[in-house]
Batch of 2 targets.
Target 1
Amino acid sequence: MTTHTLLLLPGDGIGPEIMVEVKKVLAWFNARGTVSFETDEDLVGGAAYDAHGKAISDAAMDKAMAADAVLFGAVGGPKWDSVPYDVRPEAGLLRLRKDMQLFANLRPAICYPALADASSLKPEVVEGLDILILRELTGGVYFGEPKEITELGNGQKRAVDTQVYESYEIDRIARAAFELARTRGGKVTSMEKRNVMKSGVLWNEVVTQAHADYQDVKLEHMLADAGGMQLVRWPKQFDVIVTDNLFGDMLSDVAAMLTGSLGMLPSASLGAPDPETGKRKALYEPVHGSAPDIAGQGAANPIAMIASFAMCLRYSFELVAEADLLEKAISAALDKGLRTRDIAQKGEATISTSQMGDAIVAELDALSA
Ligand code: NAD
């Protein structure tokens, strides 16, 4: 039996609380004896700053580079709001993304039938929704140089951010999109602003070229602003959406709201496949932050974290049956009406973080009995 190695980085706030629930799921799979996971754990974010004076230690980074996959909780909180910029909690996550070269960020937006009423859109628009937003994560305007604010000497200032993409960066994310679409609905929608941005023209061109190798997948191009509109008008028209760092940041947050709560949303960040082993470096994390407002109350929803582990099973270990089983267990717990505070309707009874974790493990038992 292959043993998969995982580095757990719980982080701050509710991060450690939701990671405890993933450990229950890991223990369940290990006890079942068909797959084996070996875990190590380390500090990240504010917790690492308190211990080492930086947001992730070199030793933890080495572990992350060596592990088959990293499970990341969340970082940050008011305690660290005034620490120096370079060692702020988020710097730990940015270093992981940079050193592991995680260029592809996958954010599924799945609307569980039991939660269709919790969306701000009409239930018929979101019920059964299952789309995947693939955001380029390491290039574009967040990283392009020059990036500066200069004094113009006349009391005015000038701010510059630079949107830069090279064709290889677009090609590799496009190929990741086509490969993912093959495992899903077989359709990719590429979004850019080729009408006003040169980077959009190149994006469109390179995605179209890469498509030549994936003729079994349907490709459509959409301007990103129109895409935003379509995403709230009729999101079920999409399967995989591929877009750049900036548009992806915004569009994936829009898609997040389609499904109800931040506490439900998993994500994955993947690197390029290793030429020899074909394995990709990968980090899995909930979309939400450390939720300091509810930390320590047992009120956090662990589903985004547990569903992030389901993505890990699927994309890092190709354990598709196990991933399906875990997602079904989450759905079954919701079907029974179990709700943490964030997904409860007014007047509905709620359960705690650990009760939700236990309920999902109980559903794993029931589904595999
Ligand atoms: P947040 O995502 O932490 O919280 C936003 C709101 O959603 C809060 O009301 C919170 O209680 C709720 N929420 C979030 N996750 C939940 C869950 N699992 N269950 C129930 N409710 C949940 O965003 P924020 O308040 O803007 O940021 C808080 C801190 O987290 C900040 O320090 C911020 O920098 C950091 N942050 C970290 C990450 C990350 O680690 N990847 C991402 C975003 C924000």
Target 2
Amino acid sequence: MPHAKIAGTGMYVPEHVVTNFDLQKYMDTSDDWIRERTGIQERRFAGRDTETTTTMAVEASKTAIERAGITPQDIDFIVFATLSPDYYFPGCGVLLQRAMKMREIGALDVRNQCSGFVYAISVADQFIRSGMYKNILVVGSEKHSFGLDFSTRGRSVSVIFGDGAGAVVLQPTEEEDRGILSTHLHSDGESAESLAMYNPGTHANHWVQQPVADFNPAEIGDMFMSHSMIDKAQNFPYMDGPAVFKKAIVKFPEVIMEALDANGLKPGDIDMLIPHQANLRIAQFVQQKLGLSDDKVYNNIQKYGNTTAASIPIALCEAWEAGKIKPADLVCLASFGSGFTWGSALLRW
Ligand code: UT7
């Protein structure tokens, strides 16, 4: 039975570098605090009027498609993961199809935040296993810089995130021990409000009852988006960082072990672990728990911050370009984030 292999990877990050020192100009924070708690030194911000989630995706996709040895007209299907779409609707998939002048192919948008890329890869793999498509473009792209609170009020969230895009082309392979071996997806909506952007939305305060920091959900009106929400800064993401951290360090190792067990493999068999770049401390905890050496885990959050759905394809592309992923290497992708959702993909390069 055919399954998917990664035939090409691409990435794009905006030119504009924003250091921790730059953020100090807008809020009460410090380079020391950000480095110590997250490992982040700098991130990239997209051009205000010149770049969108879709335009960054176009750049990453061009490289991935070229490296796969095909053209945009050969793509049969798009799976696009983002939490920061150009429009509330339609999703970025169709904008990418238009921008790259692709055929009238299907375009699916995935809304699984930090786990978006792993979910997207899994969906694409199933389409290839079923024989429905042959060249699938899978993209993760985010323009976070447009939707964050850069005052001191929003500092626990805004210092973490950055902009960028990553893409891969999946194609079928018959080689049993190559390509995507398995994918594993999970969710637990109990803590859906622990990492969320409530507005704009249709909840009319239905779900959001618990008091959170200086963001008072009880004051949220019953409108989709109102002037008062904006005045009260209720149009920004909320994150209970410590709660997310605690769950992440349990679920990351669990879902990686699930993938290894499903394939009769052990942590020592992993050649390269690419964790979602949420926080360097989380990645280091996972590394230690699995007993992996430094050269078996790829991190680049130091340079790009957390780029949510884009973080895994950017890291994958960078690791491959640096020669850190070689043919036949066992590569594990793993993610955890808002939802909560988490997942893993195990592949033989
Ligand atoms: O990719 C999506 C998934 N997200 C994650 O996995 C994130 C998981 N969580 C985390 O990475 C960490 O919880 C954070 C990095 C977000 C926060 O680190 P923390 O060690 O959990 O800090 P905290 O939220 O407990 O805050 C500690 C202190 C607070 O001050 P007090 O109350 O102790 O006086 C905060 O107000 O640090 C303060 N603080 C800051 N100080 C300087 C929060 N943000 C900042 C900041 N600069 N940017």
